Structures are given as C-alpha cells and as structure tokens.
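Archive entry: two folds, one per protein. Generate the first.
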Amino acid sequence: MSTISSAVAAQTSETTPDSAPFFIRGKVVEGTDQIHRSRDLGVDFATPKIDLDSLIHPRAELPPMLNTPIAEIIDFLYEAGQKLADPNNAHIQGTIDRIAKVSLQPRLAIQYQLQNAIEYLDRASLREMVEQNFPNPAALDEWVPHTDHQGRRSFIRAFAPRLIHVLPGNAPSQGIRSIAQAALVKSVSLFKMASADPFSTVAFLRTMAEVDPNHPVVQSMSAIYWRGGDEAIERVLYRPQYFDKLVAWGGGDAINNVMKYIGPGFQLVSFDPKTSISMVGREAFVDDATMAHVAALNAADVSMGGQEPCVSSRFTFIEATADQADRYCKILAEEIRVDRMDEGTPRPLDADLKEQIDMLRMMDDDYAVCGKTDGRGIAIRSDEPVDFHPIRKTSNVVLVPDLMDAMKYVNVATQTVGVYPFERMASLRDHLSSAGAQRIVRLGEAGPSAIGNPHDAMYPLHRFVHWMANEDGADAG
C-alpha cells in the first residue's frame, strides 16, 4: 500500500464511528443506518435502523421463561458468567475499547467493572437474591395455594412481567445486573442502552447466546439504543398494550422524560438520581494515625468508580474544629488521589466546575481547598455544603457541631451514608431513615452492597413481577 493510501486508511479508521449492534430476542442485528452522538463526550457511534415490531412480544404468546424452573435459569446464568469471565471473550474485550471512547470513566476502570461482572452471576448470590425478594420463591415457578382464615382458597403467582429497562451510562456492569434480575423474574425485557455505553449489554447477551441461542433467557431479551426523548419510538413502545413496567435508571432529565408516559396499566419502577454522603464523628481525631485511617476509608467511598455511581460519597460531614478539618482535608485529598483500582488516567474536571473550585480557593477565610483540579482528587472544607455537584473525585467536607446537625442535609435523594465510628450507626439510623436516606454502611464499605438487600428503599424483584391471584371459592363446610 502506498504512503498516501495508508494515510487515507488511517484517517478513515479514526473518523469512522464505532458500530453498536442490537440484540433482538436471540439474534444480533448489525447495521450503520443511524449515527448518534454520545451525551458526555460528543463521540459518534452507529446503530442499525430500529424495527419496532421486532421488539414486541405479543401478549397472546406466553413469556418464554414462564415455565422454566428458577433453578434452571440460575444454572444458565452461572454458565454464561463463566464464559463472560474468559479473558479470551472477544465480545467483552472489544467492548472495553469502544466504551472508553464514549464514557467519562477511564478505560482501566471500565475493564475492571466488566471483568468483575461475573460476581452478579454466582449461583449462591442469585439464589440469595431470589430468597431475599420473595418470602416464597415457589411463586415464581407455580401457582401457590393459600387459604385465608375464613376458608377462601386462592392461588398466587409472581407472574413473568414485560419490562422496558432504561439503563444508566455510568456503570458498565449494570447491564449484566439488569439481565440477571430480568431473568430471575422470568420477564420479557427490552433494554434501552445509554449513549455513554451503547455496547456492553449487547456484548453480555451475545455471550449468553453462544452458550445456548435457543435458551428461554436468550429468547426473552432485546437490547437497542435510541436517543432518550425520541417520541417517534417512545410513544409506540411505552404503552401497556406491550409492556407492564418501565424500570428506569438515570438522571433527573431521564426520569422526568419517562414520567409522561406512565398511566393506568404501565407502571414506573424508578431508580432516581441519588447522592451519597459520609459522616465522621469526633472519634476520628483521637490521634493522627486514626485520622489518617479514617481519611483512607472516606477516600475509598469518594473515589469508587471515579465518583460516577450514585453510591460514591460526595459530601462528608465531620465533628471537628476548623484546624482538625483542614488537616483532615489535606489527608483526604491525598488519599483520593491514590489509584486503588488501577483506573488509569482520569477525565479532567470540566471548565465550569474547575472555575467554581478555583474561586473557592481564593476565599480562604470561608473555605479550604486541598488537592488539584485535575480529576485525580480534591477536598473542599466549608461550613455549609457547596452549591454545586461534587464529581470527578471531589469531596466537600462540611463542619457540623454534631452529626445530628447533618440530618437537615439528608433527604429522599440521599442513597448511601457511610458512618465512622461504626458503633454510632445504631444511634443515627432511625433519624437517617426518617430523613429519607436508604442505606447505612460502615465508612469505607459503600460498595458493593449486601446480596439481595433493598435498593433505593425497595426490593426490586418484588416490584418487577406481575402479582396475580386466582381465587377459587371457599372450602366445603
């Protein structure tokens, strides 16, 4: 090949958008009919044209997994997980590079999350998830008989639902988690992927199809991308004729967009945007070694997933003097900058956030700013929470006379609260729950969560299913 031809080929390779194929009920659909631009980084990617009819599973047809025993479904998910964990899995390896182009997370962080997605498909974990969500898991497999105290007989079933999942773009492993949850309730599921990750869910499903393309789990699932808010698609799909519930992850705009379609027969199960916090008691300042240890725990919660997930801490409320708080901030900023998960080069702060933090740095009477605005880690000490959203490994350390004084900053958008010292959780948990928080953990243990526990104050699988009752009169006599 000539030098000119090589240059043209290289330029074409650099400018040609990555292909994001669809997966529709067991089949891969390739195509570059439509060009989309990712929301966060403005990178183009190509998808096939959407055939809306292919996404509908007629209600006259029973869900494919309905009569597949849960035990068999769990075995299949486990086998697929082993294939996902194979370092030679081409679907997963090729997806990592493509996600890195459109995601705010560093490539190594994406790689880590995808390679550890197998944890969601562990047999014991899947069984525990079912048992935690359903008092009697047999209702997933059969009509369970029940007789009330007046002798009326019924049969109850957790019937397989039809679900649309609006996936988040800030957690590549959420696709496999959603697939597992969808399979455990035997649902017919359509996954709407995000522009920050229009690749991984299809890669997961393609791997499952290689295990068995005709398995009911594979035949029950589809994954495609369209731009959120596209009424030509959403006004057709978001209807009770086709689906029972919409399972939505995402920011405020994404949730507000889908709310307009919710009505009789079409319910919303919403995982709203959340903010997580940390609470550090005066016990952390008993000596320098303890303070350094607590700051390291705090930093682990702040920097998790590059501070993209909702579970990552953004505000830390501490019982401390101004001098103690400033020393703590300096250590915290240094600890946040530690690359704990081999995440690689982070994304820099955007210009607006950097400007706001630099302005606070000049107001040294009211604020202390430790670290650099380079996306690797920074801590800001203040007497009140800052009025912007801390992100890119940014922690706002807020002084309070007592941790109880921090309750005024807790609300229904507060997801996880990390507490130190650990023994103070018991005295805080009722107040945190009353304020609206949904999860309390030891500082440094914001993730992963205990298997099968409530998420966002609910048991998701219990909410997903279509609870059906067949009443059969009263027993004789």
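Generate the second and append.
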Amino acid sequence: MNNIYLDHAATTPVHPMAAEKMGAIIQGIYGNPSSIHAYGRQARQVLDEARVKIARTIHANDKEIVFTSGGTEADNLAIIGAAYANRDKGKHVITSAIEHHAVLHACQFLEREGFEVTYIQPDQNGLIHPEEVERSLRNDTILVSIMFVNNEVGTIQPIKEIGSLLKDHQAYFHTDAVQAYGTENIDVNDLQVDLMAISSHKINGPKGVGCLYIKDGTRIDPLFYGGEQELKRRPGTENLVSIAGFAEAATITSSMLEEKGRLYQQLKDEFIKTLKAEKVDFVINGSEEHSVPHVLNISFPGTDVESLLVNLDLAGIAASSGSACTAGSVEPSHVLTAMFGSGSDRTHNSIRFSFGYGNTLEQAAEAAGKTADIVCRLTR
C-alpha cells in the first residue's frame, strides 16, 4: 500500500536543504549569539543572516523580525502585547470568528482581562468583508486581527483592503499569515499590516520556530521577561539551529512561489476531477475563486468525519478535519459552524486535503480514487 501525505496545512516535511543547513549549524556553531567572543560572534552572524533572509521574503527590514517558538507564540505576542501596550488608547479589539485558536484564545484571554472583542462573522465562502470591519471600528479600537488565509478552508482574506481602511485609524493591524506564507506573494508595506505571524513548519522548515513581523514604531509589550534578546521583545537564548533551518526553507519557498502555486493547483484540480469521474456526491467548502491552491476542504453528504478519517488512514491517506478531538469525540469545526451554522451537516462531514512538497499528480488521483471508494462504501 502506498502511503500518501495530504495534510501539509497541518505540518510539512523538512526540506533536505533546510535539514542539511541545520546539521551544519548544530555540529559546527554552538556559541551563544549574545556572547562577545569569537564563538558568540559566529553564532550572531548566523542569526543576523537568517533575520535578513526572512525579512527579504516579505519586503521588511531585518530589525522588524522577532523570532519566536512558532506561529502560536507570534500571534499571542502580537495580540496580547499590542493590547497591553496600547490600552491607554482604548480596550476594543476586532477579530473574526474563523481565526486560528492561537488568535481566538488570545482574544478570549483579553476579554477576561477587561478588553472588549468584536468577532466578525464570515459569509458562506469563509470571506470576511472589509465593510464589516469598517462597521465594527470605534474610536477606542486599538487592534484588528484578521487572518491572511483560513487554515481550514483555504479562503484568502482581503488583507490589503482592510489595511487600507485602517491606514488613518489608531488601531494596529495584525494578520496571522501562517497558511499564506510560502504560497502567497507577501509585501508587508503594500498590505499595510503592522504585525504578521509566520511559522516555519508550514513551509518545509523545522517545528518549534517562527517569527513575528513588527513594523517599526509599533508599540508592543513582551510576554516574557529575563533578557534583552530579539530587540527586547522576546527574551531567551535564540534557537539558532532551527532559525537557520527556517531561513533556508524561507529562501527556497520564496524562490519557487509561482512554480509551487501552479503545481498545487494542478494537484487540487486532479483530485476534484477524479472525484467527479467517480460520480461522488461532494461540495467544496470555501471560496473557489479566492483560495490558496494547496488547501481543499470537501463536504461528503451522508458521511461523518470520524469514519472518513479512520478509513482514509487505513487506506494510507493522511488528511484531517478542522475539528478538535476531545476525549475520543470529534467536535464540529468552529470555522464551518461560523460559515454554515451549527445545524449544518457540513460541520460533521467535511475533510481537509492539503497538498505540498513531494506530492505528485499520480498521488492526487490515487488518493481521490480511494476517497471515492470510501465515501461510496460509507453511504451505500
């Protein structure tokens, strides 16, 4: 049986060149980047070069990149850090109901701290409309956080339009770009964002590392205390090996954006074409027009997500749902619930297939064929 990995939106395999870079660093460079001796300076050079490489991929200044342990920490630092630093201007925050839990749970924490949060609802395509953001804005709004690409359905949000309408407002604009980075061409200046979270393991880099873009002049409080690393924004000795691997993966992925986009779209099209040829009853969740090429979320009427995932795994296909497994039960996706309502069957019968490094057209067709067989068997 051929195992086929179609869960790249969850995590990706490390690119061989990134792994090679990490191996060289871990074996040869062990100084602390904060030390002033030769070993420390050697490590500092690796850190500085990595910062420059990643900044270049989003058209930022290297001094605007703060390394973190991943996207979750970057989101928390942006949201909680910006809210605390600017509460003298107001305590109102705007976000959407379909954010990653790293954002939603950070906002819920702020609510417990006395902040007020407005959660904008998406349309049935998973789109957040700029007009809704504008309607929600108040004089005391200090932060707006809207994700760049939804991690469950792949819908691309109108970040540039939202950034434009916030241009003359006091509120900082944060975007979780974890699913967008590596597939979308990102220019933080053109988007007019103040804060942006990125994760390494979504772009064939190592796990446990990411970064937060913080526009120069943005007021933000640190979450941790204990040192002056990362421009006093994130103390602690930097994870040099992983940062080097992250920078290598970022350089590779940014040089192949168009090539990757074409391939992933072909894989998605092949998957859909095969399902249609097998005459499977299915509906695509999310915007087909405004969607990243690597994410495909499909509802299969008459099935349930738990049975689908178990059978797909037995068939050697790694996919996922947007649901969280808790004590053996699968809870409805908060994203699909926001899009279709809590009573919709789509919240219980949808699977996310996501394509990436190493996938082929043959694999896409084979996986779709096996998926069709499973759906037919479960609905017979």
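Annotation attached to the second fold: The longest helix spans residues 257-277. The two ends are 24 Å apart (CA to CA).
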